[in-house]
Amino acid sequence: MKIWNKIKSWPLLLPVVALILVMAVNIIHDAAVGDNPLSFFMISLRDTTTNGTILFGRIIDIINRGSEVAILAIGMTLVVSASAGTDISVGSVMSLCASFMCMNLAGYGVSSTTTLAKPLIVGLLAAVLMGALCGAFNGTLVSHLSIQPMVATLILYSAARAIGLLLCNDLIVYVRNPSFAFIGAFTGPIPTPILITVVCIILISVVLKKTALGMYIQSVGINAKASRIAGLNSRRLRFLAYLLCGVFASLAGIVASSRITSADSNNIGLYLEMDAILSVALGGNSLGGGKFNLAGSIIGAYTIQAITTTLYALGVSSIQAPVYKAIIVIIIVVIEAPPFKAFIRKHSAARATKGVKA
Amino acid sequence: MKKKVLAVVMAAAMVLGLTACGGAAPAADGGGDGGLIKIGIINNDPNESGYRTANDKDLKATFTEANGFQASFAYSLKNDEQITAAQKFIQDGVDYLLLSAADTAGWDSVLKDAQAAGIHVILFDRTIDADPSLYSASIVSDMDKEGETAVNWLKGQNLSEYNIIHIQGVMGSAAQKGRSGAVDAAAASDGWNIVTQQTAEWNAEKAQQIVQSVIDAGTPFNVIYAENDDMAKGAVAALDKANISHGVGKDVIVMGFDCNKWALQELLDQNWNYDGQCNPFQSQYILDVIKTLESGQEPAQKTIIMDEKGFDATTITADDVNNYGI
Fold it and tell me: What's the complex ipTM?
C-alpha cells in the first residue's frame, strides 16, 4: 500500500502512463494480427554494408527519431518555466542554423558538394553561434523590453526561414560528406542523435542540480517581482532561458540537417515548435510557468514520436492519421487535466470509505 | 462634399486615362523600346524545390534582351502577393503576362483587367479556375499521364508478385493526385498488393520513417513507388540501413519522380530503377505561343501538354543525366 501511495504521488506517473498507453496500442495490434505481442520492443543487431553492425527495432527508431523534439523540449521547458510563455520560433531557428551551417560547409552559393569548404567544427560552431544569437534576440525582447513571448518570438518564427534562404542563395544546399552525415547516422551500433540527446540531457541536469539555476528559473516563473526583491536578477534569468532555448534549437537543427545531408530551409523543423510545446504540456508541466519537470517534457517528446511511429506501424492511411493523432492527444491531455485528476481522486476516496463501511 | 467626390472621380478618371495610354502605347507599335517585347513573369519562389529552380533558370535563359525580350520577374508562394504583382505588371504596360499561380482561385478580376489592357496572358505549370477566354494558352504537365507512364513501366517488369510501398506527396496536390491515381487503378485491376500507402509530404526524412516502419514489421515488399526523388532518397536510406539490396536486378525496385540530376545519377549507377520526368522546361513552349500570337494568330490549342519522359536505369545514358537532370 505504501508503494502504491508512493507511485501515486510520483510526478512522472501520468506522462509515463501516457507513453505506456501508446505502446500498449502496438502490443494489442501485434497480438491481434498474430505476431509476437512483444515484437514492438524487440531490439536486434543487424549487419549493414554502409554503417557496419547497428541496433535495430521500433524502440530504437522512436528514441532516434524523437531526438530533435526531445532536445527542443529541454529549451522549451526552461522558457515556459521562466516566462510563462512559449518560444514559437524554435522550428524556424533550427532551419536557420542548419542553413548557416551548410552555407559554411559548402561555401556560399554552392548547391551540392562532397568536400567540405571549411572544417566540420567551424560549421557546427557557426550553427550553435547562430542559435545563441537568435536566443539572445528573443531573450532581449522578452526580458528587457517586456514584449509578450509569443509576439517576440513570432518575429523569428516568420523571418528565420527567409534569412536561411538568403544565406543559401535561395537553394537547397546538399553536403554529401560522410563526416557530416555521421551526426545523423551511427556511432558504433548506436544512432548518433541518441547520443547527442543523452549528452544534452545529462549536461542540463547537472547544471540544474549542481547549481541553483533550476530553482532560480522556477522562482522567477512563479513570481518575478518577489524573486527580484529576494535578490535574483529576473531579467538575466529569463534572458538565459531564451538563450539556452536558441542553443538547443541549433543542436536540433544540426541533427535534422545531417539526417538528410542537406539544408532544406523550407522544411527543416517545420511545425516542430508545436511538437515541442506539446511535449512540455504532455510532460505534466503548466504552460503558466513556474515549477517544471524536465524529465516529464522529455518523456512527452518520446510519446509524440511513439504516436507517429505507431501510426506508421499500424499502416493508418495518410488522410486519417492526423485524426487518430488528435484523438490520442485529447485522451492524454484529459487524463492529465487537474479537474479530471480531482474527479478520480474523489471517486477512489469514495470507494475507499465504502469499503471501510462494509 | 459633392465637390470633393467630383474631384476624386475626376482624378481617378485622369489616372485611369494615363495608365490606359501607358498600357496601349507599347502594344500598338509592337514594343516601342527598341523593338523589345515586354513580358512580366509571375512565378513561385525558386527555392520552393529543385523543379522550380530549374524552371526559373530556363525562363531567364530564354527571355533575354538578346532574344528580343524585356522580362521582369516577380516571385511569391502567396496568391495575394502574386495578384498584386500582376496588377503592377498591367500598370507597367507589359505585352505578355506569364503566370504560374500559387493558388487556383481569385484570378478573375485581375485577368479581366489584363484583357481590357490588351495584354496576353499565358499560364505555365499550373492552371487556374477562370474562364478560358481570359488567357491565351495554358502550358501544363499532365500528372495523370506521368503516373500512368510510371505504372505502365512497372507493369512491363512482369514481376511474379507486386508488394508495393507507396509513398505519397502532400495530399491533395495535383502531382500527388495524378501519381497516386495510376497506382490505385493498377492495384485494383491487376491485383497488386499495396503494403502501405502513406504521405511523407515530399519529405525525405518522413519517407525514411515509413519504410523503416515496414521493415521493422517484417512485411515483405519488392517495390518502392515514391512520388518524388527526395522521398525515394529517404526510402533508399532506410533500405541501406537494413541491408536490403535495391536497384537493377536487386531485391527492391526503386521508383522516383522529377528527374533531379543526382537522382538520374542514381539510375545511371543502377541503384534506382525508374525516374519519371515532370518537365520544368516550359520556355520553348511559351516562346512558340508568343510567336504565334505576334503573327496575329491564336494558338491551335488552348491547353498545351508537355512531353514528359520516364527513364529506365537499364537504358539511361550520361547525356540524359545532363540534358534532363534539373
Answer: 0.74
